[in-house]
Amino acid sequence: MGISSFRGPAIEAENLSRSYRLRSGWLRPQTKVIEAVKDVSFSIEQGELFGLLGPNGAGKTTTIKMLNTLLLPSGGTARVLGHDVAKDPVAVRQRIGYVFGGDKGLYDRLSALDNLRYFAELYGVEPAGQGARIQELLELVGLSGRERERVEGYSRGMRQRLHIARGLLHMPEVLFLDEPSIGVDPVAARALREMIQGLSARGITVLLTTHYMAEADQLCDRIAVIAGGRIRVVDTPDALKASVAAETVIEVEVVGATGGHTAALRALPGLREMDVEEGEGQVSVLTMRAKLGVDLYSAALSILSDVHIVRVSGRESSLEDAYVAIVGRG
């Protein structure tokens, strides 16, 4: 893999912003400005595996597209290995790879080998070294021996591994992974996580977006949470979990809870927040967080005394708890 001679951060974003103008109406057209990303600042060290987390529409993909030169910033600056994304986009593109989740970006009627040959030509990989490079990547992503099969017969996990191989063809120093495990089954997702950890161990800087909190917790050295286009916090997974560790967290699975029950639970003294996850039928999972020392158990069970309680359990605070609290505060 390529090793940079640049000694600064791999990625630097300073007050990065992106806005869109939307026109609506015909007889009386109106223009509305949408701020997708607002004054985003963070830096990523070389070799770091950095997570960018946030709800849908928070600005994650817009931020990544500005960093990899697919979108021009409306304001602020961003540099990749010292190269400005707006002023020197060619130098940035030579040093980065971009892998996104989903089925696009590959040719189904071609084999994996032919896909990689095609993209190697597009990326300007030297012809003399293409064969060895492709074989190295096929082994890295676990597709060696199946490279002559058409991609249309590949599973979602195999496609994602091929996406990663494609993104690594030109030996990038920085790799953007935009929800790489979306829609992938648990076994394939575990293989992808192991592969991503291996990339970081090779010295590649990785910027990862994901909606899977356990994945971010396992993989990332640091995490930035973005909501409403703004960065809310940047810290390690352990530090984020510690920020909500001084809480009582209980989960109650019930059958037949009504809006009256949840309203009464939300009104409990000391309750910080409550999430309601609807299951099949009338099953609901209520996750409640309160100040440490607050007796949620007896108060919650009293309110739910006239419905069927399947289980009640307490647990330690997780990265998901920290994420929900941060986004909720925003």
Characterise this structure.
- There is one protein chain.
- By secondary structure, this protein is of the alpha/beta class.
- It has two domains: 11-236, 3-Layer(aba) Sandwich (Rossmann fold), CATH 3.40.50.300; 242-329, Alpha-Beta Plaits (2-Layer Sandwich).
- Helices cover 32% and strands 31% of the residues.
- The chain contains eleven helices and 14 strands.
- The protein has a six-stranded mixed beta sheet with strand order 6-7-8-3-9-10, sandwiched between helices. A four-stranded antiparallel beta sheet has the order 2-1-4-5. Strands 12-13-11-14 form a four-stranded antiparallel beta sheet, with helices on one face.
- Helix 3 (112-122) crosses helix 4 (127-140).
- The longest helix is centred in the middle third of the chain and has 16 residues, at 186-201.
- It is globular, with a radius of gyration of 23 Å.
